Structure formats: structure tokens, C-alpha cells
Protein 1
Amino acid sequence: MAEWPLMGHRHEFSLVRTAILDHRGVLITGPSGVGRTTLAMMGAEVAEDAGMAVVRVAGTEVWRSLPFGAFASVLPPDPGGDREGREHHVALLGHYARSLVDGAGGRPLMVCVDDAQLLDVASAMLVHQLARTRAATILATALSKGHRGPPTPAPIVALWKDDLVERVELSPLDDDLIEDILVSVLGGPVDPASVRQFAERSLGNPLFLRELVTGAMEAGALSAKSGSWRLQDGLRPTARLVELVSLRFGELTAPEREAMELTALGQPLCQSTLDKLADPAAVKSLEDRGLITSSLEGRRLRIGMAHPVYGEVVRAGIGARRERVLARSLAEASVGRRREDTLLQASLRLVGGGGSAELLLAGAQAARIRHDHSLTERLARAAIDKGDRFEARLLAAETAHLRGRPEQADRELVALEADAVSESERVRVAVLRFDNAIFLRGRADSRKIDELSLVVGDPSLRDELLARQVYLRSIARGPRHALETVPGLLDDSRAAPHTALRGVLGRALTRVGRLDDALEILSPHAGGEGGTDTAQADVRWNLYGNRSAALLNLGRLGEAEDLLSSVHVGAMAQPADERAIVASAFAALYLSQGRVQSAYLEARSSYSLFLELGRPAAARWPYAAAAMALALSGQAVRAESTMAEMDALGLPQNLGGDETDILQARCWVASAGGDLGAARRHLQASADLGREIGDGTGESRALHGLARLGRARQVTDRLDALAAAIDGELVAARARYVRAVYSKSVKELEGASADFEGLGALLFAAEALGEAAVLLRRHGDTREATAVEHRARRLLGRCEGAVTPLVGTIWARSLLTPAELDTALQAVDGSSDKEIAGRMHLSVRTIENRLHRTYQKLGVTRRHELADALRDFIAQ
């Protein structure tokens, strides 16, 4: 790791530094662990560098009862012996103050006081007098108001209330600062879910954050995969962190330690449960010292550790035998019939023993609803050991699937098929086997699904089976065919709860261009967002992704961003599969907006998570999105490499989901490499495939792409027809742009740019202005062209370095024919005349002549000068 930065407090350090150099003094306040002492140490270094004499003291509980105890090591003996009285005390303050000043040897004096809230009154008065008389510059730290324990001495409070020093308040680090620190320390991007884990575990405490990161690195739990740092395992406290926290605990009595251990193992505990097992006086003492906290949840008073790290440190110090005894005691004392009560009792029995198969299974089901896959599997397998059969075995197989062990899941499901008796059991096993195969290989055997669909009577089970049948038809023959096989089903689905069937239908409707219908199917008003039922809770995350896709294709990019932003924090707290879904949806959003760097990061996160989960079929589209984002940012080699990784997965086509998108990604990768001929062929194939299978939205994107690469005349009528059939403003803006390019209308191009910008599609907006600038320059209107290029530059500035043929060669395109430009771009990419001729099916002599004309028009004489001539005009 790199050296740790100033833990997010650069601004505060600047204030401290200024106050010291101005000899004003400063009081640094804040809660425990936010870096008060570190900042004070840095301030003392500033003072020493400025030639000041620095005296360091600290308040402690030990010296608090002794007058001038904090200064005992730096003050001379009391000249008056042990005399008491106010007059002697005042004289002693003056004597000690002069002694400190004399000890500075004529240099300016700084007195640095750590933990000033623990000073004895006499020491606090000495600090106040030094500040009031300006005999010394004071640099002090103290806990902020409201801290547990004895109050801060009045003379210390008076330092800032009487304006004798500056006050600098330190706050815990927020999530954004924590991410900045992690990126700085680790030297690369960090998975958002990992940032969240560090933030939740440290609660913004810089010291705890550093130790958690160090521990994760040492244990190998934090590693860089696919270019991003990610936590692969839980966070554990380092030996140093255990020592630091133990010092913070101080001396604990036996009852206090037992109360801490019980709370750490069972938190959050009902007060009634803790009262049965722990000494109430010990519990009160711990709360008074800020080591445990209590809060009301409804009518229940819940007890928990004051900081997550405290609980980990306490649990780390409990031996296995004692942990078993305490867990059993907690389980026997716990009461309540809520799901969380059941989960707590089952979890405790998992450690302490004695739990029934029924309790362990109920706990596994409760953990499953919470998406805690690890705990679900442990409880389910413990229930199997206790004698529970089918339900526990199904949960165990399901969690193996969800945790990225598809081969194990399939073996267990094959064994379960023979034991499935009821209609529900047979359907659930068949559906899970299907999903496991589809995610792993992109194909599945549907015979069992088809057989069951003929005999199953339960409507919800039929919907699950039908969802898989419709999905298979979609990937085999496209979305139009899938919808034609289920006429009349859409009306029934609008009133149904959220199921996998609604997600499949909504996705198919989005692809064919029935976007308003898709959004209605995928909206929460019909059946709610999915609640406590496990199946509905699972499908909710897929619905978020599908709903955002419908909004994107409608041109409602702002609404899509609001939707995804509203679920982002919740998704980061979910297991990897939900995070991968949301990351994929964000990648699609950012590509639509033209934010290519953000799109790449989200797409890379998505496909990495899907691969870790053993779901390469789900990783295919994010791979293509990542390659497209790299291509659009000008990174041709990395884009080609990413596409090659996707191809190496060896997955079949998915006509109902992403095949037109994959072809378009190949287009932009080829374009980034300078092969515009191949790029256009990929786009033409995508458009033709979209028309064949009824993927209207995919077809419209491909046609728009062809116009962006100089084929507006060939696609205008076709895109106009699609705009009349597809819902939303985005396809209309695409059609307007293509018509404007074909008719060479500057006014319409500017109008199309305004349409795109209003929708949030900034790269498309910049391209339309770039096209208008080309026309203006060809007409000799240089002044207006420059103004338009400036507007395009402003839009491109928000596209994170995006570059396409339209925006990358504006100046050259005003001088060159399309054929000359194609040839020049391939030459710049390093292709020889012979290679260019082969790609374009022309003679080498023709290519040489084109390049010669290009050199003359651009005022260059050699091939290597072309790169400068064709450099992105707008980005300059």
C-alpha cells in the first residue's frame, strides 16, 4: 500500500497550521478516533519547523486527581512546599508559567496538550493562563461536547468560548472521503460494496479504517481483480486494533466483561434477554462509558455494541468453549416470535448447539429473505444434519448456486429431483436447475419445465414455469416470437405480483419497442415492490434493471438515473448477484449519457462479479459494454482485449437479450482500431438482425450508428418508420438527427443536438453539433462553425474523454471526402497500404492516390504527420 494520506482532514490541517503560525493557538475537538491526536502531532511538527519550543503533555485518568498532574514531568518542584490556599495557588500558576517560558530559551513557546478533557483543574487553569497572557501558543485536543465521562474542565472550554484559540472540529469520515482514501492508498479503484463495508465497519473512524484495511490486506481478503480492489472475505481486526480497542475499554470487572461478551455475540439484544443473564449495574456502567448503546425499535429496547469494531474485538477474545456456553445461554433466554427473533435463536444454536431441525430451517429461511447467503447455507446444512430433508436440502443447493458453485448446485438438485413429491417441490427444483444452467452455459434443457407446465395447477407456479419458457423462446428466436406465443398474457400480468414472468415480458416488450407497455409491466403499482416473500425479494433487483432499460430507451435518462440512485445504497448491502445487476444497469445508463469512463467501471464491476458467481452468461453483456466504453474513450487495444475475453467464454447467441448490442460493441471496437469498414458491417448486421427478430430498439440504435459513420442516406427511411412504431422521445431524436445529416441542415442538426441534450444523451448531442460545424466550415462560415464547436466542446467535457469518428475529425471532415477520411484513419492506426487495400477491396495504387490527395488537402507530407492533422479538434 502507498503511504496513508491525512485521512481526509487536509482542510482542517490547513486551519491548524495557519493558527499555529499566527500564534493564535487551536483547540481540536471531535469524537474518539477521528484523528485529533494525529492532527495535533502534525501541528507540533509545524511549530518545531517554525523554530518554536514545543512542550508536550497529556491528560489521563491516572493524573486527573492530582493538581498539575499532567505537567508533573515538565515542571520544577513547588517552591512553597505543600502549602494550600488561593493566594499560593495563584502564585504557583505564575511561577509555573514563567518556568515553562524560561525553558523555551527565548524561543516562542508552544504547549501541546492531548486529551485536554482529562486534565486536572490546576493543569487546565495553567493552560488557560498561558493562552490568556499570550505567554505560549496552545495546541490542545479534546473530545467534543456530549462525550461520555466527566465533563471537560471549564478553563479548557473557556479557551474557545473566550476566543483565546481557534476551534477546529473533526468529524468522522463520510463514505466519499473513505473511498478517496482507499483509492489513494491502494492505488486504484475500489468496488463500491467494499467501500461500503469499510465505511460501515469503521463508522468513519480513521484509525479503525487503517487497521481494517491493513488486516484485510494481510489476510488476503482484499485483492485487486479485473482492475478493481474488492473484499472477498469478511473483515477481521488486526492484533494492533485489538490492542488499541482493549486500551479504550480500560479495566473491566468480571460482570462488565460478561455483559460485553453477551452483547457482542447476540446483538442487537432485547433488554429483557440481557437482564436475565447479565448484571444490570454492569450494563449501566458499560453504557455510561460509551461501550454499549441502547435504542428503541418499536416498543422494544435493543442493546448493542457502541461500535462494530468493539464487537469484533470482544468476539475475538472469547475462546471456543466459552463462546459455545454463552451462545447456548443466550438462545435459551431469547424470546419473541418475529423473524429476527427466530434468526437470532437459530444463529445462536448454530454456535451453542441444541437447536432442532425445525428451528435451524426457520432460521435459514429468515436469513435467505435477508439475502445473507452464507448464513443461510450454514443453517440449512446444519438442519440437514439434524434430520430435516427436502426444504433444507433445496435451500442448501440454492445457496450453492447463489454463491458461485453451479456444479455443486446441479449435483444436489439432481439428487433432489428424485425426492420431490409435491407439485411445489417438483417445480422449484426444475426452475432452479434451469436457472443454474442458463446462467452457467447460456442454454438449458427445458423438457422438465415443459412437462410440469402441462400438469401444474397453482397459478404462481405456472407463472414461474412460463417465465422460463418465454425466456427460452426469446433467446432462441427473438423478442417478437416470444411475445407472439403468449397473446393475452400481458393483461393478466399487469395485475399480478412481481414475478420472474413480469420481468421476462417487460424485457421483451422493451426490445420490440413497446416501451410504455414495458414500463407499466415493470412498475411497482401492480403488485408492489416485492416484500418478504423470498421469490419476490429476489426478482425485485432484476425488475430495477429491466425498468431502467425501459426508461433509457424511452429517452427518460434522468428518471432512470433517479431510480438506480435510489436503490444503489441498498444494492451495495446486498450479495454479489444483486450488486452485479445494478452495476450492469448503471453501465447502460452511463453509455447512454456518454459517460464512458463511468460506464467502463460499472461494466467491469458487473462482469467480474458475475464471473465470480459462476454466471458467465450474465457476464456477456457487461463485457461488451466495457469493450464499447473503452473503444469510445479511444483505448482500442484494451477494447479488443476485452472483446476477446468475452468471446473466450464460448457462449451461444442470446437473440432475446443482447445479440444486437454485442454486434454494436464490435462496431465501436473496430472503429477505435481504425477499421471503419468492419465497423459499418457490424452495424449493418445488427440492424438486419434487429429487424429479423423484432428487436426494434436494438435496430434503431444500429441505424443511428450507421448514420454516425456516414451512412445517413441509406438508413433515413428505415429509421423514420421505426420512430413511428417505437415509443418515446429517444428514437424520435435519433430519426431527426439522421434526417438532418441526410438533408445537410445545420438548423435541424442543432435542433437534434438540443433534443439529445434535453434527454441527457450528451455524446449524441455533441456529435450533432460536430456535424453542424463540418457543414458550416464547408460553407465558409468559419465564425459560426467555431461557436458551434465551442458548444460541442462544452458537451464533450462532460463525456469523460469520449471520442468517436464524428467528434475526432471535425476539421479534417470539412476538407476530405468520406473515402479519403476512412483511408487516412486506417493509415494513422498503423495499417500498411496493402492492408488497407485488402480491407476496402481496392488496389494498392488507389490507396496510394487517396493518401496523396489527403496529404495535399491537410498540408502534410508524410504518414506520421497525419496523426497530428487528424487529432481531436474539439478536445483541444
Protein 2
Amino acid sequence: MDGKAKGIPQKALGEYRLKLYFIGPTLLVLIVMNIFPLIWSLGLSFTNYSSLVSKGISFVGFANYSRILSDPFIWKYFQTTARFVIIAVGIEFLLGFGLALLLKEQFRGWGLITTLILIPMMLSPVVVGLFWTFIMDANFGLLNFIIGLLGFKKVLWLTNPHIALYSVAIVDIWMWTPFVMLISLTGLLAIPKSLYEAADIDMASWWFKFRRITLPLVSPLLVLAVLFRVIDAFKMFDLVFIMTGGGPGDVTETVSMSLYRLAFNKFKTGESCAMAYIILILIIALSNLLIRWINRTKAA
């Protein structure tokens, strides 16, 4: 009996060591690839470090943060990013949820149509940016060719300062509306049909069923979809870089594009790290607000 009692801790210790052997390498990779660069870049944000100039690093405190937050151009880029996020995510939400409502009832060819709708979100953003650049080309693009056949003047999709940001938003909407649709459709298909059947027995209108059954039950997933898209759209870089490069002028200059220029064109590494953390704090704040909204929705 004593031998068995003594053997239990040894067995538990052996299992613990076995788990550690499996989990240890993963934790090490996580620390080396994610946590260490995060801490290192945070330290650099308080210095005057430049990856181009080989001089001693000196501590400057919050000077980098102060310089960025007092720069009027940076605030302009934040406004551009906010406008892009509101336009793109707002339309993606409406179109995605609308498509999900249409696809809620399965029909012949449902699987094929759903798969075709999901194709844009499966493509690389760089590939999407490149072929939409060709489609929106002012002289040889497909869009202007069709517009010309209809008798209208050609549109400078990517070079008109009043249109360029909306053109990029159109591409983002085309690419990520299926993502919102997929999450919305998952929520709609999970709603028990018995609730709708009970409402039909009570002769409830479609608006009553939508307002009292569909919307409350699917709203947590809708807010989750918006959360993911807001985070991703706020960080959006690749489409702007490929399609407009931040131009014409700086009308499509997002904060991610500005961060890229600060780090790799001006080589102000310390300032770029500070700006990256300012963006991170804003994204965390936005995420917090949306997560609280999700929790409030669930509680209700």
C-alpha cells in the first residue's frame, strides 16, 4: 500500500515532465518569435535608435510619443484611417448580413453559390490589390472600358484625390464582405427552427421574428465579425501599398502606411516603434469597447 502511495507522486511527476517536453518548445518559440520582439520594440520606442545611422543609442523618454502625438499629419492619417474603417466595415456589415439572410434557407446549388461568394477572402491581399489595380486603370482598365461602352466619361479611380480612398474601400469590401457573411450565416443557421415555428403559430410578422428572434440571437456573432474587421481594417496596409502607395498626395495615407514610411524610408526606428504602440493601444481600446458590447448583448 505504501509503495503504491509513493508511486503516485512519481507517476504524476513523470506526466508533468512529459507535458513539459511537449509544451516547452512551443512556449520557447512563442517567447522568441512574439514576446521578445514585443518587449524589445517597446524599449526602442523610448530611444533615438535608427537602423540606418550607426551611433550610440540614447534614452529619450516619452519624446518619441510626444513628437508623434503633436504631429498634425499623423492626426490627419488617423482621420483617413477612421474614415476608411467606417466606410469599409459599415458596408461589409450590411452586405454580409444581407447575403447571410438570403442564404439562410438552403436551396439547390446552395453549396456552390456559397463557395463562389467566399472565394475573394481566400485570395492574397497582394494579388487582389494587383488585379484590381489593372481593373481600375484609368486608360486600359475593365471598369472604364465598360463605362465607355455605356457612354460615360472615364473615371480616375486611383488618381483622383476625391475618389481614391473610396476605390480602395470598394476593393476591401469586395474582399471581406464574404467573411462577415460567413460568420453571420453561422449564427443564423444555429438558431433553433422551433422558435420560428412557434412564432408562425402565433401569426407573428416577419419584422417581429427578425426583431425578437433573429437579431438578438445572432447579434453577438455580428459584433464579433465587426470586431475582427475593425481590427484588420485599422491595420490595413497591403491594399493601399499596392494600389495607391498612399497617394495621390497623401489622401489614402493610412496610419500603417505612415508607420512603414517612418520605419523604412526615414529609418526612424525609435519613433516608428512608438507609433506602433500608439496604434496598438488604440486597437486594444476599440476591441475593449466592442467586447463589452458583446458581453452586454449576451447578458441581455
Protein 3
Amino acid sequence: MSGSVLDHVGFFAPQADSAAEAVARLGFTVTPFTVQRNLVEGQLVPAGTGNRLVVLESGYLEILSPTGEDTPLARQLQESAARYDGVHLVTFGEHDIGAARRRLEEGGFDPDLVVDLSRAVETATGSATARFQVLRVPADRMAEARVQICRHHTPELVWQPRWMGHPNGAVALLDTMFVVEDPQHAAVRYAAFAGGEHSGSGSTWRVQLDVGALTFVDADGFVDVFPDNTVPAVPVIAAIALGVSDPAATLAWFEEHGVSTTSPWPDALVVDPRDALGCVLAVSASDASSPWPRS
């Protein structure tokens, strides 16, 4: 494999503060809001979006919100959020973004030029600028979500230890479940995009990355896994899986703080999407590949 990892997933949230409060109620530590900027012809210009993060030991969750500027990214965020509440972004991390772009060109994805991004970050000792590059493709190539590849140039500014301790014990982003019309076709395409390996049968297919994984099911397959939930649309990123350091302690924390969960499979907890910004949240031990059953 090429070294691709499941870097982060992004919730599109029109109201930044209320979204952060909802995530904090689940026991996550949330970073302050920061405004994102693009480097265009040597000048930093507003991207039209800002974010808060839930930083895990492996991967992170991003809460993206508009900042008021009329930009393509801001319009995409608002249009996507109007379609359904939840996760609309999946980002794969790679060290060699030039090699990633060549792979996408050879695979017929017609990638855009690499975009230089930055955002102001507060550290324990003062202000700094987080820098990273993002590689995207036309929306019709990956219609399920905003799907991109990222190269972090200042990872130490993202993975700051002071933000990585979560009362609910979360430590890792394990898996992301897509509901699509044709799971096998989607898995083959995402494996080519991210440089992973696909496998599966019937209504359930999987892409294994060097770190993390993706699961693809059809609508019936989703109901088989989550019988108490329905999908708001197809395609949709319907669920994410997180690893926790101690599932029993996580359950105790949820119960103490009034977070309702179910346990449809051994050693796994599922939080209702109404409490998780519209996305099914499944948690299990951090050394699990994913909490939901495989075909």
C-alpha cells in the first residue's frame, strides 16, 4: 500500500457553537474555533470556513462551519448540510502528496492542483500557524462526500497533547461507513483513490488502509447492522467508528452523563445520531478494526 491513512472525517455544521456544545456533551474535548485560509498567488485569503477539532491519538474529527464569506467551499458546506445532518468529508493522509496526485491522474480522477492551506493555532506557549496541503478532485468523481488527500506540514500543531485527553476515553478513528447503491463499485473506486486494498462480498465491502478502514454497504445492509436507524439519503456517510481505551469506563461515563446507548454487538456501544450531529457513532476497544460485523 501507499502509506495512506484515515486522517479525519468532517461534520458540516451551519451553527458552529451549538455543534461544539453537542460534541462536548458526548465527552469529547473540543478545540477553539479557528478560521481557515487559502494561499492564493502568495496571499492568504479566507476559505469561507472555520473549524473545531476533536483530536485523537490516531486521526481526528473536524467540525466545519461557514464564516460568512461567499466562497465555493462555504457554498458546498451549506448545500451539503441542507441535504442531511452529519459527516460530509473524509480525508486521507499521505506524506508524499505529489505521488498521490500522480496516482489520481493515472486512475482517471482528474485531480485539481494541490492547495496550500493554513490556520492560526493557539499553543501552550503562544500563537502559531498550522500549514497543510490538500488535494481534491471534481465532485462527480467522488459523489459521496468531499473526499480529499492531506499532507500535514505541522502535525505537532494539530496533535497537541492538551487537546487529546477526552473524558469518554476516545483515542482513535477506526472506520467510516458509507451507504451507497453499489458497495463493491464504491470500494474499488475508493481503494484506487486512497491506495488501499478492497475486499468483501454481497452488500458489504471494505477498504483497508495502512491506518484505519472504510466500510461500504447498501441501504438494506445498513439496516441489518443498525436496525434502529434509517439513512437520510443515499449516498451518505452514515456512521463512524471510534476506538476507546476502556469500553467499560466509556459506558460508565455515558450512563453518568445521560448519553443513551445501545449495544447491538458484543463489546460495542452505539450512540443515537440525534445526539451525534446526525451520524451514528459506534465505539469499541481501540485495538478493534471496527465495531460492526463484517460480511
Protein 4
Amino acid sequence: MEIRGTSAYRNIADRIRADIESGAYPRGSELPGQHELADLYKVNQTTINRALRVLTACGLIQTRRGVRSTVMPIPPIVRNAAERYSRAARERAGAAGAYDAQITALGHTPRVEIEVRRAKPPARVAQLLGVSAQEVSAIARLRVMYADDVITQLADSYVPLDLFADTVLEQVEEGPGGMVSRMADLGHPQVRVVEDTVGRPPTPEEAHALGIAEEQNVLYKEHVAYDAAGRVLEVTTHVMPQHLWIDRVEFQID
């Protein structure tokens, strides 16, 4: 199977992509080694390495030094904010919030590593919350979120300390529906959310924390939730590997 031309590495990447999508290389399985791929396609290892870098940047494979490349264990996750933030959805089967419910419904096992503490919020977060960035004025809920054993996002949530000090929001476990449901139970229901999302390269620290290559982009999402009076109740920043997420917008038109 000989492939010629200046875009040989892209043609090889397309062939491997097709094999992944057809199931010839199942999710979580190893690809042949670079020597074997070079023999298969009758090209040098530099060309194979470039093809694998394309597939890594697309999020189809994981490549680590000294081991064979593996197919990403999970497919992209569709994030439909309108659907996932309904109370029924985020509390489905006793789920601990929208993420827990969604990942479980997709057939994966959600897991969250969380640190909860009182904190001085970042300047941008403090501005949105209307609190001081120079004082301990917020409750921070800092999470690393998994589907099975794959890190899917870093999510840092901040809520105003003056509203939620000494409440369940300072506990690791918040109960069915998570933070949004508990806020409502405490008399502070969220009624409006604004989310701004941009794509960008990860910082070295983000790439390391997410276990991705620095050439793989992330989605940076700023989630701001308001009460009926217009006060900001929550600011969450999400850093998400771009290849793992499909951001879906759904709305009615009149």
C-alpha cells in the first residue's frame, strides 16, 4: 500500500482515521508501532510520526513517549446546556449534578476529584461576583472531572462567601442535583446563565493536568449564573480538551 505525494502524512492520517471510525482499531486499542506502520504504508518513520501528530491533535489517539499510540477510549461528549441544566436532568437517578447525570447516561463512569476551600477569587471572577479579589470572599470548588479514566475537564467554581458560608456548598458532597439544586433549596435559585466559550492552546500547566499534548487546543468556557435580581451566584471556568466536546446549542424560533 504505497502512498506518494507531498501530503503523504495527511493521507495516512485519513486512512488511520477511517480505520478508527470503522472499528478496525477499537476505542482504547493500540495502533501498530511506527515501524509496522512505516512498512505498511511504505514511507519513512518521519512521515508516520507526522501522521500520528495530526491524529493526536484531532484527539483521535493518545501518544506517549516510549509506548504505542492508543485510540481515544471515549468518543466526543455532546454538551447541550439547555438540556443538562434542567432540574430533572441534573437529578436523574440521584445524580450529583449535570455532569454526573450526563456521563452516566452516556454509559461511562463519572468521577470528580474536588478541593473545597474559602479563597481569594481571581480578579475576573471577583469582578463578576461583586466581591473583593484581595480578601477571602468566595467559596472555591476546584474539580478535575473524569469519564471512566479519561480527564474531560478542569472546572473551578466560585460562589460568594456572604451568601453561602457555613452551608452545604462548603461540603464535598452536595447531594442530588449538585450546587445548582442546593442553591435553590437555600433560597437562591439560578434563573439565567451566560456562557462564553473560546478555543485556545492550553497553558503548559493545563496540558499537563489534562494529560494532553500542547498542540491540542482546549475550549475555555466562562459560565456565569444569575438570580432573579441580577446578582451573580456562581462563576465557573471550564478548561476542556477541544477534541472531547461538542458544544450543542438548541433553541426555538418564532
